[in-house]
Amino acid sequence: MATPIKVGLAGFGNVGSGTYSILKRNHSLITQRAGAPITVKRVAVRNVDRVRKLVDEDVAVSSDWHDLVTDPEINVVVEAIGGIEPARSLILAAIDAGKHVVTANKALLAEHGNEIFKAAEEKGVNVALEAAVAGSIPIVKALREGLAANRVSSIAGIINGTCNFILSTMRDTGRSFDDVLAEAQRLGYAEADPTFDIEGIDSAHKLVLLSSIAFGVPVNMDKVHIEGISRLEAKDIKFAEELGYRIKLLGITKYTDYGIELRVHPALVPMRRLLANVEGAMNAVVVKGDAAESSLYYGKGAGSEPTGSAVVADLIDIARTADANVSERPKMPTTQHNPGAKDFADFGDTVCSYYLRIPVDDRPGVLADLARIIADNNISIESLIQREAPQKEDSTEVILMTHSTIESLMQRAIRTMQQLKSVRGPIVVLRKEELQ
Ligand SMILES: NC(=O)C1=CN([C@@H]2O[C@H](COP(=O)(O)OP(=O)(O)OC[C@H]3O[C@@H](n4cnc5c(N)ncnc54)[C@H](O)[C@@H]3O)[C@@H](O)[C@H]2O)C=CC1
Ligand SMILES: N[C@@H](CC=O)C(=O)O
Ligand code: NA
Prior knowledge:
- It is built from 15 helices and 17 strands.
- By secondary structure, it is an alpha/beta fold.
- Strand 11 and strand 12 (293-300) form a beta hairpin.
């Protein structure tokens, strides 16, 4: 028997309004699929007057989120306000009141997920988070259910729509970074603080949730190596293209012999890979499992209704399973804790191949010096290309691509190269992901 759901909706911005529109437009279909009606009973927002005009008359609108928690008829709270507080207090209060929670708030779950999931487990309620990771893509469901037979070995994905939109639009149109970022903000893709997007923090939030679900480990933001796209130069995007690669901001987690890797950084992806051809605000996630092998999930990772789609899917799941025994419901990330799981890896132990752009003097012997330092660190060179730097006749740029090596060795080699007199400026370091 399904349970009728009365929703208390916190927030009526991009995600809250998208959720409301879907529930209204597809009401009969959703009722049929959930086995019981799902209706919004109350909305809590900052701007009550604006939202009052946008919802049906029987929906109560107030500015106080406590109203959602104290209303005994509300059995699910949807948190779509974002940020840490009061979202954390709202979710913990809703759990304490025995209500299920659906949230799109990856920042909150990445920072406070262990506390929230534990509270929900103790209370026997659900905290559903499909919207928090890759928006409309049912990646949480795929990992928990569709791939439940697998030992997942790696997840690599484009999990920030804003960055992917910036990278593809800059490449296709030559428009400036700031101009394209402003458009992503207008389109509702960017976070309230867009530095979360462009500095890789939003991707890291989603990555720790994916890693937690796939490997049964606690969420831990301190263990993620994070680099964003703000310092990426147009010439590296161009050189990468010439060499047959696209630069994408990737979130990568791997279960390796030396621990669980967690890293977010721009990466060169071979153009022949599907991930290299994911454009605009689209997201895509590649999961490798021992049985299913490689599978790819693609879709809209941001936007009002695409994210609302994931919120409503979680509401339907809750309607179907609310009456079931807790053990019959899908497990939450940290509650499927795997006691045998490896610890997190040190970033220095990561194995990668590299793209280096090195500004150097244009004179004999310089390439030999670079090659010697690379060899002294047991790194093998895949290719070495010298570029003309037209503005300064006595200088040039070397693009050096390596085979796989260990991050700490690469960093040592870079430090040594950087000290050469013939190296004229900072060495640009990007990683390659072959995604085989
Ligand atoms: N915009 C997107 O495409 C996606 C957003 N998310 C996440 O969804 C959440 C919401 O994002 P958006 O809808 O884009 O934000 P938004 O800024 O468009 O909407 C926020 C809403 O929350 C309300 N609000 C803020 N503080 C409040 C408070 N103290 N009490 C009551 N209401 C309050 C505001 O009035 C507004 O209606 C964030 O956690 C975000 O990271 C997740 C996936 C995609
Ligand atoms: N700001 C995020 C929104 C969805 O999570 C993004 O750009 O992907
Ligand atoms: Na999702």
